[in-house]
Each structure stands twice: as structure tokens, then as C-alpha cells.
Amino acid sequence: MGKSKVLVVGGTGYIGRRIVKACLAEGHETYVVQRPELGLQIEKLQMLLSFKKQGAHLVQASFSDHNSLVDAVKKVDVVISAISGVHFRTHCITLQSKLVDAIKEAGNVKRFLPSEFGLDPARMGDALEPGRVTFVDKMSVRKLIEEANIPFTYISANLFAGYFAGSLSQMGSFVPPRDKVHLFGDGTLKAVFLDEDDVATYTVKAIDDPRTLNKTLYLRPPENILSQAELIGIWEKLIGKELEKTYIPPEGFLTTLKGLDYKLQVGIGHFYHIFYEGCLTNFEIGEEGAEASKLYPEVNYKRMDEYLKVYV
């Protein structure tokens, strides 16, 4: 069988642009949605044109124009949505209902990967307010996909390194501190950190794989399953210095959270489940899922000691 033709929706975004790159690198005929709503966002336009130079096809389509979405979907075998789900930027997850409608009408798509790429929303039913809205919205999209009998793969990519590793999981910064650091609880619960390019690589590997059909693909490369304390230890070794540590108890974290802007509460509230409950690693992957590094051992994923070197 030949490689699938792929449509990427949200291809100029944080993870979307990496997925476009990975599709091209894997030899897929790649289509990227170009929305007329881009207007004067010249950086996004130039990114789209750079994709075109690399061999991607640009497709005019809009969430406000159902027929244009259907026409775009009909060109491909696989649709990957990477539209934003981060509240402090833009949160567009529920817009995917329009994409589901287009895929259903087109009737030709053999795999749809909705925009998830984080914590598995199916395991977050008891998430704190207001952060639980992220998972409620993603589950509402899943419901539409499954009711329409659209073949799917859900990607649980855990923690993007740009957000959580480079900062040593500190709030309010994306660069690692050099003097003082805060740890959540005792800092020993395990999380999973991934270079965003590796997220894209694993995602694209899965689209033609029957082992990931109608399953959740968990990205858990074993050497990147680390506690916050272990991540800090890697940084201390790189800079040859021990940081002054402050340990934040759960009640102290929740008190701080309440004083934040709503959009920040949504995102930072997820820290509680990750670092105080260990929600990324406190379960075994069952028959409904698969683990990416086991399926694709050929991927030489970036370890966090290598990732953090750029910050030294």
C-alpha cells in the first residue's frame, strides 16, 4: 500500500507546523489548510508558503464554509487536526465539530486524528474547575467522531518539553532558573516529557498503522519518564550548580491558583493533576491504547539531558 494523503488543519500552529514537516519527511502527499481568515498575519502566510516550497499543497478552506471543508477533506485519506487548545493563546477545540461534519459528508477518510496531544481527556473526568473545560471539550469532539463512525487515533503526548522541560516545570517562565526552583509536593511523582518534533514524528508514524486504529496512542518514551526532581537534577548537572529548592504543598498550590486570571487557571490547574496526582503515569495502558516507543523503536527520541543543553 502507498502512503496516505494527509490534510493538516492548524498547520501553522505550535504542533501543527511540526506535523506538516513530519508528513513531508515521511513521504506523505501533504495538504495544509489555508484559511482566508488569516488576514494580515503575514508570519503564518509566509510559513504556509514555505510549506509549499517544500512540496506541500495549500488548500483554501474555512470553518465558516462547510463546502470548502468537504472539498478539502475529499482530497486526502487522513485528516490531522492541530488547532489550538491552549486557553491563554486561543482555544478552538469545539470548532472541530464542523470538521467532523465535513469528514462525515465526504465519506472517504480512513483516519482522523483530532487535536489532543496532551493529557488523555478520557482519564480526566474528575479534573478541577476551571481546567476541566479542556477535557470536557475534547471528549465532546470524541463523542461526535465515534457517533459518526469515523475511524480515529487519539494522541496522548503528555508534556511538551517547550512548556514543561525548558522551564523545569516552573510557572510563569519557559526558561530554566539558575538560582532558585519550586517543586510541587516532594517532586517525586513521574511525568513524561517530549520534544515537540518527536510528538510529530510519532503522530505521523501512526496514521497508516492498523495497530493504532480506533485507539489512543500514548507517547511514553521510557528515558523521558521523569519526576520534576529528576528533571531539575539533569539541569543542575549541566550547569554544575545546585539550586535552592522550595517545596509547594498541595494546599499552597491551590491557594495560589485561585488568585490567577481565568485563562491561567485553566492551564496551570493541570499542573495539580500532573505533579500532585501523577496522572500521566499512574495507570497501565490497556487494550484500548498503544505505546508509541514500543511500536516505533526506530525513532531516536530526544532525551531531556540533550534537550536542556541548548539553555546552558
TrEMBL record:
What Gene3D superfamilies does this protein's entry cite? Answer: NAD(P)-binding Rossmann-like Domain, UDP-galactose 4-epimerase, domain 1
Tagged with keyword NADP? yes
* MF GO annotations: oxidoreductase activity
Source superkingdom: Eukaryota
UniProt domain NmrA-like: residue ranges: 3-308
List the Pfam families hit by this protein, alphabetically.
NmrA
Question: Has UniProt tagged this entry with the keyword Ribonucleoprotein?
Answer: no
Q: Which GO terms describe its biological process?
A: lignan biosynthetic process
Sorted alphabetically, the keyword list is: NADP, Oxidoreductase
Q: What is this protein called?
A: NmrA-like domain-containing protein
